[in-house]
Amino acid sequence: MTAGLGFALDGLSLGYGGGLVLREVDLEIVPGEVLVVVGASGSGKSTLLRALAGLLPPYQGRILADGAEVAGTSGERAMVFQDDGLLPWRTVRRNVELPLKIRGVARRERAAQAREWIERVGLAGAQDKLPRELSGGMRQRVQLARALAGAPRAVLMDEPFGALDAQTRAQMQRLLLDVLRGTRATVIFVTHDVDEALLLADRVVVLGGQDVRSVLGVAGGDRDELRARILKEL
Ligand SMILES: Nc1ncnc2c1ncn2[C@@H]1O[C@H](COP(=O)(O)OP(=O)(O)OP(=O)(O)O)[C@@H](O)[C@H]1O
């Protein structure tokens, strides 16, 4: 199993067209942790995730991934979006095989690994279906399988369960916790939902006022107290 990626954000300023969204942020992300990012709408959660993915270059400062500056996307850092980023013309199996193909994994091995991931996310009967034949929850399962099949060292998730109904969302949260137990990947997960944050996180980062308002460790903490602290800062 490959180790999770550690990140260091060092005086990081991000924005668009000259407008600043985050100003001089310093933050360490520990290898293997689940870091959940919360914050009011427009506080820069997705912007931060895009920068970690290498999709948005910093105005100032640096993002280091295991000490090396992030410059562009990499198979080491997989992304999962709210609206599924699946290729509509490829079956479930061929979507999940994609990161393996990009990594140069041989065809038979690719098929075997994709099958294993499809089974782990509970879609064994659906591997030859096209994305349009699946429910929203099933499509998010495929995205999860695809992200993890590439054995990434970090998974960047932008409100992946935001569009799902409450029951499917709870199922997906359980599934995520379950599959993460079998990997050492670092997870950075953006959500609006404080309860989701507390369920999934090792640490919660609250963004606001162009900066990190606070970083809270979740393990062993009192949930009600943590929830109240986060809600106060949002
Ligand atoms: N491509 C873009 N071009 C210009 N401005 C953008 C772009 N994407 C985001 N912004 C602006 O940057 C700010 C932060 O947006 P971002 O999407 O990161 O916030 P967020 O915290 O993820 O919000 P939400 O919770 O509503 O998704 C907002 O003011 C937004 O309008």
Short précis:
InterPro entries: AAA+_ATPase (IPR003593), ABC_transporter-like_ATP-bd (IPR003439), ABC_transporter-like_CS (IPR017871), ABC_transporter_ATP-bind (IPR050166), P-loop_NTPase (IPR027417). With 234 residues, the protein is α/β, with parallel strands linked by helices.
Q: What CATH architecture of the largest domain would you give? A: 3-Layer(aba) Sandwich
Q: What is the typical, i.e. mean, pLDDT?
A: 93
Which topology of the largest domain does CATH recognise? Answer: Rossmann fold
Query: Mind telling me the C-alpha Rg?
Result: 18 Å
Inertia-based shape: globular
Share in helix: 25-40%
Low confidence ranges:
none
CATH superfamily of the largest domain: P-loop containing nucleotide triphosphate hydrolases
Order of helices and strands: EEEHEEEHHHEHEHEEH
Pfam family, one: ABC_tran
Organism: Nonomuraea jabiensis
GO molecular function: ATP binding; ATP hydrolysis activity
Keywords: ATP-binding, Nucleotide-binding, Transport
Q: Could you describe the 3D structure shown?
A:
It is a single chain. By secondary structure, this protein is α/β, with parallel strands linked by helices. It has 2 domains: 1-76 and 152-234, Rossmann fold (3-Layer(aba) Sandwich), CATH 3.40.50.300; 86-151, no CATH class. 35% of the residues lie in helices and 26% in strands. It contains 7 helices and 10 strands. The chain is globular, with a radius of gyration of 18 Å. The relative contact order is 0.19. Bound molecules: adenosine-5'-triphosphate. Adenosine-5'-triphosphate (ATP) binds at residues 16, 21, 39, 41-47, 192. Keywords: ATP-binding, Nucleotide-binding, Transport. This is NitT/TauT family transport system ATP-binding protein. Pfam families: ABC_tran (PF00005). One of its GO terms (molecular function) is ATP hydrolysis activity. Residues 7-234 form the ABC transporter domain.
